[in-house]
Specification:
36% helix; Helix Hairpins; 675 residues; D-amino Acid Aminotransferase, Chain A, domain 1; alpha+beta; 19% strand; 5-stranded antiparallel beta sheet; OB fold (Dihydrolipoamide Acetyltransferase, E2P); binds 2-(butylsulfanyl)adenosine
Length: 675
């Protein structure tokens, strides 16, 4: 690269870092993750090192942070609040140790204290005569913002120090991390979702926003926590001599000190500690983004001193990032083996922990709606361990214009058939039995014991038949020839003819087995038996309306809807024609209709949560007994079945004088009059 190219790149990096710095430190509204920031900063540091002529006095590498924003008075630090240099791998830890030994003039191992690097905000708390008098954010390291009233709301910050008399420091600046527990964060978001308020993206931003609330009550609501880990200016007798003693000292003064901090005797132990916590980080109730390694001996710390913005006696080992922000370009929908529609995020490619991520899961429609995720948003993406990356939510502050709310397609993106998405259910499904996306699973089910019982068609052959395009829906099974089967991989002459014979035998299983093999939603062997017995042929069943289906004992509204929807799909009807043409028995002996149920002619309304039955189960039982279930209470209602947390429907029933049943009373009613 030409010299001009280096200068240009350096100035681009400075502009990006300055903007990121300003957003992060002044606006508390970062648009890039810490990890991305570190990558840019690292590139600029390397560039300036290799080409010192591009270095500028105002480079972000020469200073720390930006100016405080208005709203809070400035808070001057009596001793600067330093930041830390980073290590990203073992070699960099070993190099750090080598530097410490060289500058400290040490022959053997150096003792360190390893501390978890809590992902929160650094704070400084001032205690005079044992009382908390002021506290501020780090800001640019020299001046922060005074947020004393907000800090007082944090329960793990003592308002007065516990040590009394000679042991108490006359003055002390205690430094540590304000952060939010994952459990508190989850509770806050649940609470906000219940109140229809937008939810927060992650604990760190929520803590940062909490500290900077102008109303301390709003800070208190977020339930922040604090870990103490360092001291600024101090005026006391009997000072600790090592970092691990300092932590004990802070603990005695009444601070929460992280329980996993550990003094170790060499850099090898540091490496082991780092590896241990990279594995165990998910177990914690708070987020950590690395390990802070500090020279244990405070006299050695003083001897080593600082270099620019970073102390020479400490380093931050950064874990691989798990989170990044990027733009949601589109939402595509794939169809799983059981017909479930899966929405997937198409992302502007972004680096997370060393891999480029351009796709992530969005789970389902409810997830997208509850988290208010829209195409065009800047979103936060998490990649934890080996699991599929997941979009956690939009960065609402960056939503500059109105974006449409996303809804799943009403037609299957693979085959174009209707999508079934029952009210109140998270999953939407394709209703086409021959949808290519579902075919392997459907075929395996069709051939299984409880259905058409075709020996030989298991997982493997089902997949081969679909892959080789010999089977495009289950009816194709009955049009296979011996030659076709023989030509398949791993298929011997004998097994091919065995499979063919099994297929032939399956033709006479009858309608009940056939129906259960077709995999109509909610139609398992039991309902298949009822429908076969009541309708007698697949043609009669295909022609039945929802009302007619509801007359069958045990067939509730959900089942009826699903059956009608199935037979409405043209590919399903064509498949049934082919089954018939192949000679598959699609009939069943009609059975005697059950006598009118005990609830014949009665209308019931369900409300609230019953102790044992789900609402659907209760509805199915009522319908099976000849009753009808409607959704609103009127004078025509015969009974209201009320469970826990029944609301307005119960009140209305009481008002109209309609008999109210609990689950036990409903069961009694269903059993009919005693002889
Ligand atoms: S010591 C000179 N100890 O990490 C010592 N920092 O990148 C400076 N942090 O600004 C801080 N946990 O916000 C220290 N146990 C810990 C820490 C910790 C988290 C944060 C802190 C600091 C940043 C340095």
């Amino acid at each position: 690269m030409a010299l001009k190219g280096h200068a240009k790149r350096a100035s681009e990096l400075r502009a990006q870092l300055d903007e990121a710095n300003y957003r992060y430190h002044v606006l508390d509204d970062s648009q890039i993750s810490d990890a991305d920031y570190d990558v840019l900063l690292r590139e600029l540091l390397d560039l300036e090192e290799a080409h010192p002529e591009v270095r500028k006095p105002d480079s972000p590498t020469q200073r720390v942070g930006g100016a405080p924003v208005g709203g809070f008075p400035p808070y001057a630090h009596r001793r600067p609040m330093l930041s830390l240099g980073n290590a990203f791998d073992e070699n960099e830890l070993v190099a750090f140790d080598a530097r410490v030994r060289k500058l400290g003039g040490i022959e053997g191992d150096v003792a360190y204290t390893c501390e978890l690097k809590i992902d929160g905000l650094a704070m400084s708390l001032r205690y005079d005569g044992g009382t908390l008098t002021a506290g501020g954010t780090r800001g640019d390291g020299t001046t922060g913002e005074e947020v004393t009233a907000n800090l007082r709301t944090i329960r793990s910050i003592p308002l007065t120090l516990r040590a009394k008399g000679a042991a108490a420091p006359r003055h002390i600046d205690v430094r540590g991390e304000a952060y939010m527990r994952r459990s508190d964060f989850a509770r806050l978001n649940e609470d906000r979702a219940a109140r229809d308020l937008p939810t927060f993206a992650n604990p760190r931003n929520t803590a940062a926003g909490g500290i900077r609330q102008l109303d301390p009550k709003a800070t208190a609501e977020r339930k922040l926590s604090f870990y103490a880990y360092a001291v600024g200016e101090i005026d006391a007798d009997a000072l600790p001599r090592t970092q691990h003693e300092l932590l004990e000292y802070l603990h005695k003064l009444g601070f929460r000190v992280n329980e996993h901090a550990r003094p170790v005797s060499s850099i090898r132990d540091v490496v082991a500690f780092v590896q241990e916590w990279e594995q165990k980080r998910e177990m914690l109730d708070y987020e950590i983004d690395g390990v802070v390694v500090k020279v244990d001996d405070l006299a050695l710390q003083a001897k080593l001193g600082t270099a620019g913005k970073d102390p020479r006696w400490a380093i931050a080992f950064k874990f691989r990032a798990r989170e990044a922000q990027t733009k949601l370009l589109d939402i595509t929908v794939s169809v799983g083996r059981t017909g479930v529609l899966n929405p997937n995020a198409v992302l502007e490619p972004v680096q997370i922990g060393g891999t480029i991520v351009s796709n992530a899961t969005l789970h389902n429609q409810d997830y997208i709606r509850n988290n208010d995720i829209r195409i065009g948003d800047v979103v936060t993406v998490i990649r934890a361990g080996d699991v599929i990356p997941r979009v956690v939510g939009p960065v609402l502050e960056l939503r500059k214009k109105k974006l449409p709310v996303y809804t799943l397609p009403t037609r299957c993106p693979v085959c174009g058939a209707d999508v079934d998405h029952p009210e109140g259910e998270p999953m939407a499904r394709c209703t086409n039995a021959s949808c290519p996306a579902q075919l392997v699973e459907r075929l395996r089910h069709f051939a299984s014991r409880g259905a058409m019982d075709i020996e030989g068609i298991g997982d493997q052959l089902a997949a081969t038949l679909v892959e080789s395009a010999l089977v495009n829906d289950v009816s194709d099974v009955y049009h296979l020839s011996l030659e076709q089967l023989r030509a398949l991989p791993r298929m011997a002459e004998k097994s091919a003819s065995n499979v063919l014979a099994a297929i032939e035998r399956s033709k006479s299983r009858g309608l009940a087995r056939l129906l259960s093999g077709l995999g109509i939603r909610f139609v398992g062997w039991q309902n298949a038996g009822i429908l076969a017995g009541d309708f007698g042929s697949i043609d009669a069943l295909a022609a039945a309306s929802e009302e007619e289906l509801l007359r069958s004992e045990g067939i509730g509204p959900e089942i009826a809807r699903s059956v009608v929807l199935f037979f409405e799909q043209a590919p399903n009807r064509a498949m049934i024609e082919r089954l018939k043409r192949a000679g598959v028995d699609t009939t069943a002996p009609l059975r005697e209709r059950a006598p009118a149920g005990v609830l014949a002619g009665k209308t019931l309304v369900l409300t609230g949560t019953l102790p044992n039955l789900t609402r659907d189960q209760a509805a199915d039982l009522i319908v099976a007994a000849g009753g009808k279930v409607t959704s609103s209470v009127s004078k025509k209602t015969d009974y209201v079945v009320a469970g826990d947390e029944a609301g307005s429907k119960l009140a209305k029933a009481e008002q109209l004088g309609i008999p109210i049943l609990d689950e036990a009373a409903l069961n009694e009613l269903l059993e009919g009059p005693r002889p």
